[in-house]
Amino acid sequence: MGNSNPSILHFKFDVSTFRLLGRELITDRITALFELVKNCYDANAEKVDITFEHLNPLSEKSTIIIQDNGLGMTFEDIRDKWMVIGTSSKRRKRTSPPPYNRIVAGKKGVGRFAVDKLGGKLIMKTKKKNSSVWHCLETDWTRYSEEEDRQLKLNFEESTEEQKLFTDIDNRYWTEPAEIGIQGTRLEISSLNDVWLERDIIRAYRELSKIVKPTLNMKYPFSIRFHVPEYKDYNDKPVESLVLAKATLSYTLNYRYDDDKQIYYQEYLEESKGCLVVKEKEANVFGPIRFTIYYYDQSDKKGFSKEERDGIKVYRDGIIATPFAEYKSDRNEQKDLFGIDKRRWSGFFEKLSTRDIIGWVDITDELNPQIKDSTNRQDFVDNEEWTSLREFVINQIHQIELYLKHRKDDKKKENAERLKKADNDIEDIKQKINRIKSQSLLVSPEMELELNEITTRLGEIKQDVSASSKDFEQLEKDKKQQENIMFSLVSLQAYAGQISHILRISIGIIKRSAEFVAKWIPLGQKYDKSVKHSKRIFDEMNNLSKAMNFMLSYAEDDSTFDYFSVKDAIAELFDDRYNYLFEEENIKAEYVIDDDFELSYNKKAFQDMFGNLIDNSVKALRNTQDKRIKCTAYRENNNLIVLFSDNGCGVSDEKRDRIFDVFYTTTADLGGAGLGLYIVRTRLNSIKGTISLEPNEFKPTGATFRIVIPLIH
Fold first, then answer.
1. Contact yes or no for 276/403 (Cβ under 8 A)
2. What does R_g of the chain's alpha carbons equal in angstroms?
3. pLDDT tens, 479-506?
4. C-alpha–C-alpha distance, residues 383 and 385, integer Å
């Protein structure tokens, strides 16, 4: 180091530090604990003891002590590794020393900042097994904060005071005698930043229980134990991984390597005719993975608390990749790694939530190098590989949802048939009793009285069964109506931005024109321009009236069928509702409908479908120069055929089969929610119609959808 005083150490910068400048490193104290415990794992520790003392209220005695029996450090390790910010030997050597050979969890060289997140002062004591002394280092992070605050107040251009650098602050170093056979590292953190309530200890315990994958078989164990005298339930308590109860459904998807083709193949789930089938395809862009998922229905959930059921985690070489421990008391504000809960905006779509599933994605440094932790450990680096992995996980969950829906629909159908059968069986029994009663020689007065009573009771039961059957049918109708309302709200959400834009522009024009008229009419000047502005006000008021009529259309019944002109309905969309958008986006939009014929359907639902297609096309055209949208409608036998085309970015081959799936979107950056095409397909299915992706009529890029609507229902 060139330091004349060996009892003082200074931090040094590695060149990689500059990549970290301006980044928020450790955002949560539970994440900080994770980082420090991961360091213990990387140091070949078999046990870690975490002691919390005098947590509430805070005092000079308040401390957190993290002690392991790992490899420990020499003086040179402290000086050349711990004291060099941004440098990590783990980036160069990705396994811990033999015989453990653990694939190390840390590699960014910023984990030591986790100490500062927990408390302002640190005393570290560390030693190798054969060393006779503890190497001790004291770091007072408050001095760094104070120096930063002081320098922010100085004007160095005018001040004669020499600027003191971060690397100039002293950190006291000393040694203490120790037994030869002992090894490991002890971090004693004081000047704690926060009070630790019992709920904070519980959360820390639960999060640390996930640090090692539940089913990982380790040759050399890794255990964590809590010591919290203030909270007896967590004093001298081992941190235990989640014990998985019997799941309603469970799948583990593996991968294999084909030596001849030198290709990895990935297993995946696909729902087919009410069955979940495990298939295989070439591995995705993110690389081969193992994916384990457990689904629990309402009865099987009883084996877990709500906090234990928290969705899908990512484990890298057996150790959790990102803690995702940043805490929000409101579950709606909590982070959702794969966006599982964000899909559940409506219960009508029967989506699974993180409370329904437990699972993990197994990735490795070797096979999935582009799945990288973000520096703050609260997310992954947003790149193509991570996006693709998220899509894969969501798609697998969706396949389970399709299977569960199919099973639920079968059950409902079975129950409806049983009700109908019970109704018929009751009627048959009544008729048999009447036949017995008609044979008066065989029936005594007492028996006849008994049979009359049975007949009366059967009649009452029949009424109950008939009423239940009607209630069942009505519930299905009500559910469908609610789903239609929800579809309308989704469409309205897409249109709301457009309507707001129309209103804002029109009101601005009206205001400016009204100001012009108000200024010049009293003076009797600029007559021609005043007339022009008056006409403009009138035209814009008409536009606003159309916009309001459009908004009011959402108050209409969404299930009533009526006859309407197909040409008029599409013209209203192109010429009125979306005209502003087409002009603003410079889109040439046209519709070709040779024959004007009527369709028996709900007009609002019909226009919603095509509104969603227009909205998708506008997004697909964002990078196209000569933008075009075309809608062609004609009659073919007893069907209305509509071809809807644009010359936008089109749909790639690998996405063709997924574009109609709910919540699948390629335009999330533009506000796409993956609902538009799903709504179109669902509404068409309800009237026995279809939608398919056809060869595009615009070349070389774009998309053409073929919609078939039966004219006779």
1. yes
2. 35
3. 665 555 555 554 554 455 555 555 666 6
4. 6
